[in-house]
Design a protein that fits this description.
Two copies of one chain form a homodimer.
Chain A (H helix, E strand, L loop, with lengths): L23 H14 L5 E2 L11 H9 L13 H12 L10 E4 L2 H11 L4 E6 L3 H9 L4 E5 L10 H13 L4 E7 L11 H13 L3 E5 L16 H4 L4 E6 L12 E4 L4 H17 L5 H11 L3 H27 L21 H8 L4 H12 L1 E2 L1 E2 L12 E2 L10 H9 L7 H19 L13
Helix pairs in contact in A: 2-10, 3-10, 4-5, 4-9, 6-7, 11-15
Chain lengths: ~450, ~450
Amino acid sequence: MSAQHTPAPSRPLHPPLRDLPVSPTLAADDTIARRRREGLPVLPLGFGEAGIPLHPALVRELTSAADRGAYGPVAGSAPLRAAAAGYWSRRGLPTDPGLVVCGPGSKALLFGLLMSLTDGDVAIPAPSWVSYAAQASLTGAKPVFIATPPGEGGVPSPALLADAVVRARSQGRSIRAVIVTLPDNPTGTLASEATVRRLCAVAREHDLLIISDEIYRDLVHDPDRKVPSPAAYAPERTVVTTALSKHLAAGGWRLGVARLPDGPFGRALRASLVGVASEMWSSAPAPIQHAAAYAFAEPPELVAHVDRSRGLHAAVARAVAARFSDAGARVRPPEAAFYVYPDLGPHREVLQEAHGIRTGADLCEFLLERYGMCVLPGSAFGEPDDALRVRVAPTRLYGEDDEQRRAALAALDPVALPWVAESLDRLSEILADLTTGVTASGLHTAAIA
Amino acid sequence: MSAQHTPAPSRPLHPPLRDLPVSPTLAADDTIARRRREGLPVLPLGFGEAGIPLHPALVRELTSAADRGAYGPVAGSAPLRAAAAGYWSRRGLPTDPGLVVCGPGSKALLFGLLMSLTDGDVAIPAPSWVSYAAQASLTGAKPVFIATPPGEGGVPSPALLADAVVRARSQGRSIRAVIVTLPDNPTGTLASEATVRRLCAVAREHDLLIISDEIYRDLVHDPDRKVPSPAAYAPERTVVTTALSKHLAAGGWRLGVARLPDGPFGRALRASLVGVASEMWSSAPAPIQHAAAYAFAEPPELVAHVDRSRGLHAAVARAVAARFSDAGARVRPPEAAFYVYPDLGPHREVLQEAHGIRTGADLCEFLLERYGMCVLPGSAFGEPDDALRVRVAPTRLYGEDDEQRRAALAALDPVALPWVAESLDRLSEILADLTTGVTASGLHTAAIA
C-alpha cells in the first residue's frame, strides 16, 4: 500500500554477488539426470567422466585407510608425493617428491596455481577445457584465448602466443602464464613435439609460467606414442598436473597432484602454492591420499586396467567419429582421451533454414530439446559463438550399470555390444534427421534407454 | 665471470608470485613434527585438531562407500544435504536441503563464500581464526579487524562494527560482510544472545552478509547452554557453516557444509557459491559424503561419542587454564571447543628483562626454542603484535597413540591419567621457569615424551 512512499534505496539491498553459472560440463550432467527422471529419451554425450567402475584394488586401498581422520601435511603425505614422483620419473620426467603438491582434485590445484600469480593475464588454448578461463577470471586474471594449430588441440599456436604477448605489452598489460592440455580436452588430439618445443621457446623468451594439464596422459590411444610434455623442454618454468579422475575413473574421489619446477622459481612457486592451499583447502582427504599413493605406484593390476580402459575409449571414440563423418560432419580421428570434436559447419545452411540454428549453443539446445542428445558447444570451450563444433563425450554409452560397464571393458569389440551399438545407431538416426532438413520428424518421441 | 656484463633485467625473471606463508596453525604442526624427529622435547599445544580417534561407525560408513568413484552434484548428494538440514533443524534452525551446499571442508566453503562477493571489505573479529583474514585478502577483499566484547570472543563488538561501516563509507569503501565464530576459536568462549542480536541489527541496518562459522557448536562445555546463531535473528542474511572436523575429529576427511539463507538473496548467493564451487573443487569426495550423511543424521552412538569428547575437551581445557592462572597469567575459564587463551601480560616486565621478549611472536618463539612448547601468538589471530596472549590447544596431550586417546575419552577424570598429568606438570614447570626470570635454566634439556 505504502510502496509508492518507500524511498529508492541508496545502495544495493544486499552485497553484490558474482554471477557465475555452474561449470557447463556439470550443468549438462544435471540436465541429463533431470530428463531421465522425467522419462524423456536421452543420449548423454555431455559429461567428461571416464564411465568405468573403480578397480577393486583401489576400493580395497581406500577401505584400508578409512580410519585415518587426522589432518596431514598441506602438500600431501610423504608416501603419496613419493609415488607421484615415481609416476613422473617413469615417464621421463625425473621428479623430486619435495616438489610434488597434492590437492583435492587437479582442478583445485590449477586454481591454486593461478591464485599464486599476483599479476598478469593467462593465455589459454581455444578451444580448451571450460574451467581454465573461468578460473583465470575468478583469480582476477584476464583469460586470453589463443587458437591452436590445426589438429593440435591443447597448445596455443606458438606464433600467435608470441604476438599476443607483444600486443598485451603494447597495451600496458602482460601475459604471465600459458596453460596447455596434453593430450587435449575437448578435441581428443595430441600436439606434436615440434609445436610444444616452439611453445616452450616462446614461454622462455617472454618469461611465462607454463601450466601443463596432463590429466589424460595415460589415455593416448596409441600407447607407443610419446606425450611431449613442456616439462621436458622448459623444465625450469613448467608445472605439470594430473589426477586419478580420468585414467582411473575416480573423479568423485577428488585427488590431484602437481609437479612443480625445480630451481629457485619452482621452489618459490611451490611455497606460494602451499601457502594458498593452506588457506583454501588445508589438504586432500587423508584416506584418499593413501589409495592415491597405491595408484601412482602403478601396480600391474592397475596398469592392465588402464590398458583396457584405453582400448575401450579408443574404440568407442573412433566409432562415434565415424558416425559423424558418415553424416557429413568434419571430424578428425580421435587420438586420445574420450572425446570427439566434430564440426557440423558443412550443414550450416540446412541447419539454419530448417531449424533456425545459427550458433553452437542453438545447435546444442536443439539436440537436447528435440532428441535428448547432450553435447557441449565449442563456445563453451572458448570458440566463436557461430562455430558449429561440438564436444562429444561418449563414455556414458559404455553401460547403464557397472555390470554392463565391466562387460564393455572386457569386450574385444565393445562397439558390437548391443547397448553400445544401439546408442551408436540412435546417434546416426539423430544426425540424419538433423541434417535432412525435415522439421516435423517424429524421431524425438522414440523412447531410448 | 661475465656477471658484471649481464644487462639488468628489464622485467622480473619470472612471473610475480604471491608471498603467502603457510597457515600458522599448520606451520606449527610441521615444527612439532620436526622436533620430534630430531628427538627434542615437545609440548605440542599449537594445532587445533580434536585429538581423538574416529568413531568406528564412521570408519564403517566410509568403508561401505569406498567403491563410489563417480562425480556427484556440485552442492553435494541429496542424502547428505537432507541429513545436514536435519542436523540444523534439530538445533532450532529449520533448513531446506535445497539451501545446503557441501564442500571439501568448511574452509573451502568459507573461501567460496568470500569469492562469491564481488565487492567490499569483510569485518572479522579480533582475535579470530587465522584463515579468515588470509582468505579475505586472497579474494581481493580487505579484512577489517574489529575487537570483540570482553569475554565474548568470536563476535565483533556491534558498536565498533557500526562505527567501522560508517568510517569505511566515509573513505569511499564499503564493508559488505561480517564473519562470526560461535563458539569461538581462539578464545574458547561463546558470545551472548544479546550481543549476537545487536550484531544482527547492525548487519541488517547496513546490508551486511553474516557468515557464522559454527564448527565448534557441539563442543560447548555446558551442553544445556544454547548457541545463539545469527541465523535465528537475521535469517535472511546469515550463512552458517560447520564440518566433521572438530566434534567428530575427522579433520583429515575434509568435509564441510554450509546453510544458505532462505529468500531471494539466499538463493542468489547459493547459485553464486555453487558456480564458484564448480570451478574451484567440483564436489566433495563422494565416499566421504556418504559417511557424512550418516554423521549428520546423529545416530545415538555418535551422539554419545560427541558427549564423551566434549567432556574430555572441557576437563583438560579447564586444567590447562588453571595452570596458567596459577602461574600468574590472566585467563578466562574456557567455555567451549578445545582452546585456552591466556594473557601473560602480567609478566611483561620480567619476560622483557630476563628473556628480551617484547611481542607475542617473541614469546612463542622463546617457548618453542627453549622448551619445545608450541603455542600461537595472539598476533596470528589479528591481535596487536605486543599482546602477550597465546592460544593453547591441549588436544595433543590426550595421548601419543589411539589406545591412550581412547583411554582419555573413557576416563572419568582424564586429567589424572599419567600421561596427561605429566604434561600438565611439565606446563607448570615451564611457566614457572619462564616467569621467574632465571635465564640459564637447565629445564629445556630435560627429555619429555
